Every structure is written in C-alpha cells, then in structure tokens.
Amino acid sequence: MQERAEKLAPAAALALYLVLLGTVLVLAGVGGRLYGVLSDSRAANDARRASLTYVAARLRAADAAGAVRVESRPGGDALVLDDGSGYVTRLYADHGALVEEYAADTDYMPAAAEKVADTHTFTVVQDGAQYIITTDDGEVRVTLHSAGRADE
Predict the structure, then answer these.
(1) Least confident stretch, 31-40, 59-68, 104-113
(2) Where are the beta strands (DSSP E) in the chain?
(3) Which residues of 52-63 are buried (b: 16+ CB within 10 A; e: fewer)?
(4) Whole-prediction pTM value?
C-alpha cells in the first residue's frame, strides 16, 4: 500500500499543480476582461464630461463685461464669446455635433466650424450671472464674475 501511495504522489502533485495553474489563468482572464470593461466605461465617461468641461472653460476664459451673449438661431441656442476684435467664437449644435466657429461677427457659417463633440442638444440659459449649458451628456452651470460690472 505504501508503494502504491509513493507511486501516485507525483501524479497527484502534478494534478494539483495543473488545477492551480488553470485557476490562476481563469482568474487572470476574468480580471483582464473586467479591467477592460471598467477602463472603457471610464474613458466614455471622461469623453462625455470633456464636452461640458470644454464649454465651461471657454465661457470662463471669456469672462469680461459684455463679452458673452446667448443668441437664438434656427438650429437652437448659440453661445457667443466676443473678444472685442470684431471676431467672435460661437458654440452651437449643428447636425448632431457641438461645433465651434471663429469668425467675423456676421452670419453663421457651419461649414467653417470645427466639431468639438457629438451632441444633438445644446441649450444655454442665462440667469443673471449664471449660464446653464445643457447637452446630451448633462448640464454644467457657470457663474461669470464680470456680470453686473461696468464696461472697463
């Protein structure tokens, strides 16, 4: 009986090793797939927030008396940022995308605009010094410090 147990010991050790190796490989595969799913989800969330963050940053950068206005256009709202040079930056939705157009303060030219992000919705509501911007990805509120100050 002792001899038989001694002959089976290497086979049992090998079987145990293979079971452990298989378990480690399965766990590594599951962990890799889980990491990929979480990473893709985080990247998509970051991309969604990026459009709102971009608009908020552009709005804050234009924080000067009389430099920001909201215009209604046939396709929806437009956020107009006037740098005082005769040129304006317009942010608006056009054909399923948020676009940015830098041009003379004349008619809108969507063909000259650059795509910022995908969205079908772009609304801007001004409530005193606060601007509420809404896209397909959510809403951001920006309060301008220059509101209510006299032109400098």
Answers:
(1) 104-113
(2) 68-73, 76-82, 87-94, 97-104, 114-118, 122-127, 130-135, 138-143
(3) bebbeebbeebb
(4) 0.68
